[in-house]
Amino acid sequence: MGAVRVYLGLAAKGRDIPPQALATAREAIESAFPVPAEVIRADEWHGGGVSLFGWSNEPDDSRLPRLLHPDGGRIVGVNGHLADPADVSRLPDDSIGGAFSAWIARDGELTASTAINRVCPVFYAETADLHIVGSRALLVHLLAQRADRIDFDVLALQTMVRQGFFLSDETPYKGVSALRPSTTIAIRGGSRTISETPLPVAGPAPDSPRLKRAAIGELAEALLATVEPLRSAPEPVNLALTGGRDTRILAALLHAAKVPFRVTTNGLDTHPDVILARRIAAALKVEHTVIAPPQTAAKDAVLVEHPLERAWETLRTCEGMTSAYESIVGYLPYSGKPTMSGQSGETLRAGSLNLLQTDLGDKALLRRINNTFYKDEKLFTAEANEHARELAKPWQARENRLEALDHIYIWYKVGRWQASARAGALRRGDPVRPFLDNRVARAALSLDQGWRLSEEVIYTLILRFAPQLREVPIEGKPWRFTDGLKKRWPWSHVPPPSMPTQKSGGGWSWRTSPGPDLTAVLREQVLGSLDALAPIVNPDEVRALFADPVVKKPGTAWHLYTVAAMLTGLYPGKRPEGLEQITVSRPDPGR
C-alpha cells in the first residue's frame, strides 16, 4: 500500500516565497522525518507564489499516485493511500475510499484536506510572509520560526500529561494547529479559508430485519471496497488473528472478497486466542501459523532501555503528541508485504469510550465526557483546569451523549492519538487498516450509536461475510446484544456462549509496575523539570505523586516524563548515548 510520505506546502502572502524558507524546508526534513536520512527521497514543485514539497522512504515512485502527481494542470500529493488510485483526480473529496490527506498545488493556490477521521493529519501555521501547511507538526513549526529554536505551547500540553495524547486541535508547538476531520484549508491569492464538513448524523436504529439488512449494506460494501485492491497483491495478506471481534470480521471480510490471505496467532496452544483462531482458519480453509511465546525461565527482574532513549525515539516519531508510556513500533526498512490487523475496530461499535461504559444513563455518560477532558484536577494548575474545561464545553453541550462520545473517539482517539502513534508503523510500510477507511468510518457513523454499541452490527457483518463462522464462539464477554436473547424458533439463531478470557501468568509489565530503580529515574527527570512544567502542574502534587519508592500512577508518571523531556530540549537533537539500562524488579517474585 505505501509508507510514510511527508508533505509541506508554502504559500506566499506577497508575490514570492522567500528563498530562505525553501532552504529551511530542505534542511529541516531530517529533523522532522523519523527515518534514516539516506532512505529519504525528495521531490518539489514551485509555481506562482506556491511551493509543494514531498518526501518519502518508499524506494521508488511505482506506487500510485506518485509522490507529487501531475493531474490536469495541478500537482497532487496523497499522504496515506486511496482505495482506488484513479480517484486522485476527484480530490479533494472526502467521500472517496482510503485513509489519506490530500495536498494540491497550482499557480497561486494551495489546498490540503483531511478525511473523516484525520488519521493522516494536516497541520498549519502562518507568519507575516507565509502560510505553511504540512503533514508533520514540527516541520511546520520550524518553517514558521524566525530563530532556530522551538517555542512550546505549554498550556496545550496539559492534555498530554492528563491522557498521553491531545484532546484538542492544538499541538506542542506554539502557533501550529491540527486541521479538523473532513476539513479543507485553502490559500488563494495569499488569503486563507478553512471549510469543515460535520460528521454524519446517525439515523434511527432500524426496527425490522429487512431494514437492518439494508442499513448494514452500505457499511458492508464500504468494507469490501477497502480490500478489493488486495486481490492483485503479489502474495497473500498476513492477518494477525485473535479470538476477538475486530480481527474476526477482517478474516470474514477477506474471505468474502476472495482475497488470498493467511493468519498468524501469538500464544500457546491452550490459549483461547489460538483455539478460536484455529477454528476460524479451519472454517475459512486458510493457512494458520501459531507463534508460541518464547519459553524462558521465570525472572525476578528485567533490564530495560533508559527512559530518555525511549522518550527520544517517541518524541522523534510522534512529535510530542504521544506519551513514551506507549510502545511505538520501531523503525525497519520499508517492506511492501501486505499486513492487516484490527486497529480501530471500535469505530464499528460506537467507539472505545462508549464501550467502557456499563451505565448508559445521561449522568454516567456526561461523567465519562468530563473525566476524559479534565480528570486528576488536583494535579493541575487552575489555568490548566480552566483550559481543559473550555475544551470539554462543546462536547458537554451535545444532547446525544452516545454520539458525543462516539465523535470524541473519532476526533481525538483516532484523529490525534492513533494518527500520531501509527507514524512508527508506517515507516515500515502501510499496513492495511479497513476500519480507518474514509467510507467505512462514514458509513459506520451513519448508524445509530446504541445499535452499534449492542454489537449486533459487527456480528451481522461477520455472518454476512462468512456464515460458516456462525457456531465459532467469541473470546471474553458475550456479544452485548445477546443479553436475555433466547432461541424463539427451531430455525432462529443465538450465538454460542463466549469462551472466557484466560488469565495468563505473564501479566506483569515493567511499564505498569516500574519498580524503585525506574521510578527513581522518572522522578529525577520530572522533579528536575518542575520550572518548565509550572504553568500546567502543581509542584507539591507532582512531588506527592513520586513520594513512594514505586510510583502508584505509572501512566501519569510517563506522561509527565515525556513532557518534561520535551520541554527541556531532548528533541530535536541527537539520540542520547551511553545511558545505562535500568533494572526493573518483579513486584511479586515469589509467584
TrEMBL record:
Domain Asparagine synthetase: 219-454
One GO term of the biological process aspect: asparagine biosynthetic process
Pfam family, one: Asn_synthase
Superkingdom classification of source: Bacteria
A Gene Ontology molecular function term of the record: asparagine synthase (glutamine-hydrolyzing) activity
Record InterPro entries: Asn_synthase, Rossmann-like_a/b/a_fold
Protein name (Swiss-Prot/TrEMBL): Asparagine synthetase B (Glutamine-hydrolyzing)
Species: Nonomuraea dietziae
